[in-house]
Amino acid sequence: MELLRLHPAGLAEDVTGPTGATLHRRIPNWAILALLLLAAFAVRAWQFGNPLIQSDEQFYLLVGQRMWEGAWPYVDLWDRKPVGLFLLYALFAKLGSGVYGYQIAAMLFAVATAWGIVLICRPLVSRRAALCAGLLYLPSLNLLQGSGGQSPVFYNLFMVFAALCTLRALAQAEGGRGFRLGVLAMLLVGVAIQIKYSAVFEGFFFGLALMWWLWRRKVPPAAFLLGSAAWAVMALVPTIAALAVYVWAGHGYDFLFANFVSIFERGEAGALHTAGRLLEMALLLLPVLAAAIGGILAARRRHGFAPIAFQAWWLAAAIGGVLAMGDFYDHYALPILVPAAVNAAALFDEGRKLRWLGYFAIAFALVAGGIRMAGGWQRNGDAAELAPFVRAIGWEPAGCLYIYQGPSSLYSLTDSCLVTRYIYPSHLSHVKERGAIGVSQTRELDRIMDRLPRFVLVEAGRDKDNERRSRREIASELAGRYRPALQARIGRETYVLYTHREAAPAQATVDAATARH
Fold it and tell me: Greater confidence, 183 or 305?
C-alpha cells in the first residue's frame, strides 16, 4: 500500500526537489533541538516572570499550589478543567519559583512539541523543511495567547507524539507491533484528554485511522472489535483512573458534575459576539493555514495524496474540534497549529516562488505574535501594576482576601486564606455562569460576605458581562461594611480594593492618583 511504503519506521535521509537537486542538508539532531530551544526562548522569554499573562494560568497555578496544602480540585477549589492539568501545575509549583516554574515548563513543552513536528515531517521532506515546520509552530503560539501556560501548550505535546505513534502504526506490516504502537498512541491521547477534554476530537480521528489499519489488514471480525475496543479503553484509562480516585475519596459526584455536567449548563454568548470571535480567530490563523494548504498541494503534486492523507485529515479534525467547541476564544485554536505546521512542511522544499508563503507565515507569526503579546501586557497589566495591591494586602494577611473581579494571582502573591471554593472570579460574577456552577451565585456571595473577608477586590465600574444580581449583592455589602483602601489600574481596568471597616488598616493605602501608571 502506498501510504505504508512512504512512511517507514526509519526517517528519510534525502528528498529530491522538482529539478532533481537534493534538498537534504545533514543538520544533526542536536543542532535542530538547539535551534528550536533558542527560537522558543527568543519568542517567549520576555514574558517570564509576568504573573498576569492570562487569567486562566493564574488560576491553574493557584490550584496547583494549594493542592500541596491538601486542597482537592472540584471539592475545595472548583473548576471544570480536567484534573490532569492541575496535577501538571502542582508539579510546576513544586519545581519552580512562582510563575517562572510553569512558564519555563511551558517553553520546554513547546520545544518538545516542535521536535515532534520535525519527526513527523521527516519521512517526506528535507531536514531543513522539517526544521522550518517546527519553527513555524513556536511563534504561532503567540498569535493565540499561547505565550504562557494555556492548556493546549501542554497537551499538544502528547497529541503530536500520539500522531507520530499512529503514523508508525499505519506503516507496520507486522500486526503485533502496529497494535502496540496504537495502544501507546491512544494512551497518549488519554493523557491529553486529562489536560483538556477538547483533545477528544483529534483522538477520535486517530482511533478511526487505527481502525482503518486493522480493517485493511483483513483481520477477523472478533480481532477487529477487540483491537478497537482495547484502543478506546486506553484512551479512557487516565479519566477512569481520576474518577476512581474521586469515588474512592467520596467525591465522585463533585468530579462528575464539574467535568461532564456543568459545561452544558453555561449560558451562550450572543451570535454577533460569537461570530466576531470566530472571525478574529480565522484572521489570526489565515497565514498559517494558507501555508498548510500550500504544503498539502505541494506534497500531493510530488507524492500523491495517500502519503499525506493522515496529516491532511488530522488538520481537518483539529479544525472541526475547535468549531465544535463553539465559544471561539482564540486560545481554543492552539491545537490547530500542530497539524498545520506538519502540513506546511512540504512548502519549504518548493521553489522560491512558492517557498515564500511558508516564510511569510513564520514572519507573520513573529511580528503579529509579538504585537499580540505586547497588547496582552497593556490589556492585562504586569507585576509592577499589581505591586500596590500586594503591598496593601500584605503576606499572609490576618483576614482573608476575596476577589470578585480581578487577577486571581493576588491569592498566590499574598498567600491569603480563601473564603470560598469558587475562587476563579468569573464563576460568581459572569452572567454565563449563572446556574452552571452547582450553587446560586447570589447565595454563595451571601455566604462569602457573612464570613467577613478582610479584603474584597472589584472593578471600579460594572463589567458588561456581570451578572446583575450578583453585582448588586456585592455592591450592597461593600457599601455597608467596607471602605475603599486602594484604587488603581491593572492593565486597562481600574480596580478598587476594599477593607472591612472593623479591621486594622492595611499595610499601605494608595489612592488612584499615586498608584496609576
Answer: 183
The rounded distance, in Å, linking the Cα atoms of 496 and 261 is 34
Query: Could you tell me how many residues make up the chain?
Result: 517
The span from the CA of 66 to the CA of 61, in Å, is 9
CA distance 466 to 426: 8
Q: At 422, which amino acid appears?
A: Y
Interval 11-26: pLDDT, tens: 333 444 433 334 344 7
Looking at residue 509, its pLDDT comes to 36
- Sheet of strand 455-459: strand arrangement: 401-403, 455-459, 493-500, 482-490
Instruction: Please state the rounded mean pLDDT for residues 212-230.
Output: 94
Return d(Cα 118, Cα 409) in angstroms, integer.
Answer: 36
| Alpha-carbon torsion angle 356, 358, 360, 366, nearest 10 | -150
* pTM for the structure as a whole: 0.91
Q: Could you tell me if 84 and 191 are in contact, meaning their C-beta atoms sit under 8 angstroms apart? A: yes
On whether the CB atoms of residues 404 and 458 are closer than 8 A, the answer is yes
pLDDT the model gives residue 512: 32
At which residue does the C-alpha cell 507524492 appear?
A: 303
Rounded distance, CA 429 to CA 83, Å?
24
| Mean pLDDT, range 436-440, rounded to an integer | 93
CA 66 to chain centre: 21
How far lies 381's CA from each of 390, 408, 409, in Å?
14, 13, 12
Identify whether the C-beta of residue 80 lies closer than 8 Å to the C-beta of residue 258: yes
Nearest to 129 by CA among 17, 30, 284, 43: 17
